[in-house]
Design goal:
Strand content: 15-25%
Shape: elongated
CATH topology of the domain at 11-171: PH-domain like
Strand order of the largest sheet: 1-4-5-6
CATH class of the domain at 11-171: Mainly Beta
Helix content: 25-40%
């Protein structure tokens, strides 16, 4: 089950039950599985017993007891699925129960101390009990048999320290060092109108511009012929032909 967060709230840590709480229910479940195997294999066929003042078959008794032995394991699994042990940047939230639900919403400024109690059996399974002192020392909240108990306690204490630090900064009108929000990227706009961009013009040689003209080796001969014709035009007329 997920926690409904408040505005500007995020979860720092969430813990679950340790494996210690499942040891006894799993032992009962193992016995139930053995009873079911005995019924399936036919080892109890044809045997009748006196049960609750009645003569019933042994298979019926084994199935009934096996179903009852499965209930604690199923209950613990559902309870672990529905419970919430969470620490946010604003509070400690605790929710337990399947039918009868108990909720605790503890603001961080009201927490005075966090203690850990660990037995020898809990040390084997890396579990512990966490006690949260709220207000005066007489008001305590117990969180039993959780995994990662020290990380849970350290997260609560660090969240309290961060909240007090932010409150002190606000009292002194000091903005805390927070990363700047991401700025949207817009295309840069110039105050001057942009000139249109034309594609570069291709340079053509005289041969490409005027393909019908003769250039190159014929250019010198044609120029010389024109020069000779111009000289003959300006030559004085000789009646004798010389």
């Amino acid at each position: 089950m997920s926690l409904v967060l408040r505005p500007d709230e995020f979860v720092k840590i969430e813990v679950h039950f340790s494996y210690k709480v499942f040891v006894f229910p799993m032992l009962l479940m193992s016995i139930a599985i053995l009873m079911f195997l005995a019924v399936i294999s036919g080892a109890a066929d044809g045997i009748s017993v006196h049960w609750l003042g009645h003569i019933v078959k042994l298979t019926t008794v084994l199935v009934s007891i096996g179903v009852c032995l499965l209930i604690p394991y199923i209950y613990k699994r559902i309870d672990n699925r529905l419970k919430i042990y969470a620490v946010t940047n604003q509070r400690v939230y605790i929710r337990r129960g399947i039918i009868n639900i108990r909720e605790k919403d503890i603001p961080l400024p009201k927490i005075n101390d966090v203690q850990i109690f660990q037995t020898f059996v809990q040390r084997i399974f890396a579990a512990a009990d966490v006690v949260i002192q709220v207000g005066n020392d007489e008001s305590r909240i117990y969180v039993d048999d959780i995994n990662r108990p020290r990380e849970f306690r350290d997260t609560i204490l660090s969240a309290i320290y961060e909240m007090k630090k932010i409150e002190d900064m606000h009292k002194q009108n000091v903005v805390p060092d927070l990363p700047p929000p991401p700025q949207p990227s817009y295309p840069s706009q110039s105050p001057y109108p942009q000139q249109p961009h034309y594609p570069p013009q291709q340079q053509y040689s005289p041969q490409q511009q005027y393909p019908n003209q003769n250039y190159g080796s014929n250019y010198g001969s044609s120029y010389q012929d024109n020069y000779n014709s111009d000289n003959n035009y300006h030559k004085p007329y000789d009646p004798d032909g010389f």
